[in-house]
Design brief:
Layout lengths: L3 H7 L15 E20 L11 H7 L3 E9 L2 E6 L16 H19 L3 E6 L4 E6 L4 H13 L8 H10 L4 E7 L8 H9 L2 E9 L1 H4 L5 E6 L6 E6 L1 H24 L3 E6 L4 H11 L5
Parallel strand pairs: 3-4, 3-6, 6-7, 7-10
Antiparallel strand pairs: 1-2, 4-5, 8-9
Helix pairs in contact: 3-4, 5-6
Amino acid sequence: MLSEAFLRSLNRLRLDAPRRMRGVYTGERPSKKRGRSVEFADYRAYTPGDDPRRLDWNILARHGKTFIKLFEDEEDATVTILLDASGSMRWLAEGEAESSKWRRAAEVALAIGCVALSSGDRVIFETSSRARCGPRRGLGGMSELIRLAEREAANPPDTRANLNEWLRRHAAAARPGLCYLVSDMLDPAGYLDGLNALGGAGLDVSVLHTLCPDELEPGITGDLRLRDIESAELQDVSLDPAVLSRYRERLAAFTAEIRNQVMRRGGRYHLVDTSTAIEQIVLGDLRRQGWLA
């Protein structure tokens, strides 16, 4: 799905963690734990059993008090990438044989995974159809992520996915870390319960809200019969300039609500137009907004 040249460009980047993460292996991220790196973090009083080599002899000489130095322990983070594979994510624009919306969303998810793997982070990749791989560490795991996305592309879902149910199920067994949700956020039951569950599991949630041009700016008018891509329900509508204007207002309110809900939980939000080149999304937009360093 992604070119070799683009993948190589991602190897120089790393995910920006909004707060200190507790990892498992020694890696490149500042951890909540104190450890053995050379970067000074803090002092605490000496207690029997502490390594005397960590005593601050300057404080002892000046004040007669025994304190030891604490240092940052650089560790990896667990990075979870959740890719929505529901029917609405497979929207086919006129003349398309393959959904460009789905393909771009999958490419964004894979790009995030590549950056995380190249930084030494542990990566879990999961779709709403319950396909999953990981945890994986190191760029050798990238091929497995790509194969999973390609299998999902070749096997559209048979049933309607419930966004809240999927996110709650994942959160029940999740470990704290960074979480990237790639989804159009379209579900009759909403998404708030799912977001709350992810936050409650100690995940720092970043949402890549993926919508295609037909959703962002519909180019159809007249009397139409529309079919829900997931439920197959039919709806007769008359689209005129006034109706389209109200649609744009409701879409703006919808995206603003999601942004506010994510940011109030300390997360990040980015609206992805899936007609935008993957290079622009990742190396341009996300890097400029500080998601990548």
